[in-house]
C-alpha cells in the first residue's frame, strides 16, 4: 500500500531522484498539495485471455496394479 507522511531527508536523495516524476508525485502528496493516486488494478478484462494461462489440472495416473497390461504373447493365448 502507498503510505505518505514523512519527507525523505535531503541527504538520502540525489538530484536525479528529486527530479524524477515519482519523487515529485510523492513530495506533492507529503506536502498535501495532491492526493495519492489509487493503484491500477492488475485484473484483466474477461475477454482478454491471450496472456491468461490456466494452471495444469492433475491427470489421473494408473498404476500397474490397477490396470495390468498384457504382452502380445499373452494376448494371443486368451480365449474369447
From TrEMBL:
- Name-wise, this protein is Uncharacterized protein
Q: What is the lineage of its organism?
A: Eukaryota, Viridiplantae, Streptophyta, Embryophyta, Tracheophyta
Q: Where is this region: Disordered?
A: 37-80
Species per Swiss-Prot/TrEMBL record = Tanacetum cinerariifolium
Amino acid at each position: 500500500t502507498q503510505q505518505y507522511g514523512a519527507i525523505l531527508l535531503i541527504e538520502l536523495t540525489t538530484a536525479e531522484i528529486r527530479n524524477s516524476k515519482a519523487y515529485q508525485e510523492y513530495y506533492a502528496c507529503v506536502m498535501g498539495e495532491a492526493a495519492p493516486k489509487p493503484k491500477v488494478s492488475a485484473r484483466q478484462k474477461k475477454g482478454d485471455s491471450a496472456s491468461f494461462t490456466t494452471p495444469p489440472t492433475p491427470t489421473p495416473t494408473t498404476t500397474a496394479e490397477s490396470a495390468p497390461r498384457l504382452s502380445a504373447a499373452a494376448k494371443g493365448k486368451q480365449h474369447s
